[in-house]
Write a structure and sequence with these properties.
By secondary structure, the protein is mainly α. It contains 4 helices and no strands.
């Protein structure tokens, strides 16, 4: 049985399109979706998440293993955040209640990612004892 989520073979663009309900073959909006994906990656870089130099995609060649975070769990969180954020940019809900729920979920994910990143960068202070 093949892995459902294989970071070495799963195209970032293809996964986001799947979550948006689009097949890989339907390429009419690939440029729009890629632009939104890159915007979200830029936001993540500004939050201190992912590669320090930033990350972007140009098409189907970039896979999740190309995007490096401090741990695998955070990468999974980034996948959810990126997909939801792109959905809100590309195909925002017309219902105000759904939009509010989506924006609340995005805000919570941003907070959790930010806190997780800060926690992973925390260094215990060195205590010097005087004699």
């Amino acid at each position: 049985m093949p892995e459902i989520l294989n970071p070495d073979t799963d195209s970032i663009l293809e996964q986001v399109k799947k979550i948006l309900g689009l097949t890989k073959e339907y390429d009419s909006f690939d440029t729009d979706i890629a632009i939104h994906i890159n915007t979200v990656f830029s936001n993540l870089t500004q939050m201190g998440i992912g590669p320090e130099t930033g990350f972007s995609i140009t098409g189907y060649d970039e896979v999740w293993s190309d995007y490096v975070t401090s741990d695998e769990l955070k990468t999974q969180q980034v996948k959810s955040y990126l997909a939801l954020k792109v959905k809100s940019l590309f195909d925002p809900p017309s219902n105000a209640n759904v939009a509010t729920a989506m924006n609340n979920a995005i805000s919570e994910m941003e907070f959790r990612l930010y806190v997780e990143e800060e926690n992973s960068r925390y260094v215990e202070p060195i205590v010097v004892e005087e004699e």
